[in-house]
Amino acid sequence: MNTVLSRANSLFAFSLSVMAALTFGCFITTAFKDRSVPVDIHVSKVMIKNVDDFTGPRERSDLGFVTFDISANILL
């Protein structure tokens, strides 16, 4: 008769094999799917400021702000 540890090991190994098969199945069903959708990008405002940099003495750095809109139909 098998011990409790032996049975637990067998159950764990079987569960791991089933999970590996499910993972491979999910990969196969999505690997070759066409995922390209039309995307519209609109930039409305671009701004650059020269601000103080507190990492060094009397340093200044450029800080950029970009406002944009992205629209895509991802439910295709």
Give a brief description.
The chain is α+β, with helices and mostly antiparallel strands and 76 residues long. Helix content is 37%, strand content 38%.
Structural write-up:
The structure is a single chain. The protein has 76 residues and is α+β, with helices and mostly antiparallel strands. It contains one helix and two strands. It has a two-stranded antiparallel sheet with strand order 1-2. Strand 1 (39-53) and strand 2 form a beta hairpin. The protein is elongated, with a radius of gyration of 27 Å.
Strand order of the largest sheet: 1-2
Most strands sheet:
2 strands, antiparallel
How many whole angstroms does the radius of gyration measure? Answer: 27 Å
* DSSP strand count: 2
Helix content: 25-40%
Mean pLDDT: 90
Uncertain ranges: none
Query: What structural category arises from helix and sheet content?
Result: alpha+beta
Taking the alpha carbons of the first and last residues, their distance comes to: 56 Å
Q: Provide a count of the helices.
A: 1
The percent range for strand residues is 35-45%
Overall shape: it is elongated
Query: Element order, helices and strands?
Result: HEE
Subcellular location: Endoplasmic reticulum membrane
Keywords: Endoplasmic reticulum, Membrane, Signal-anchor, Transmembrane, Transmembrane helix
Organism: Cirrhinus molitorella
Protein name: Signal peptidase complex subunit 3
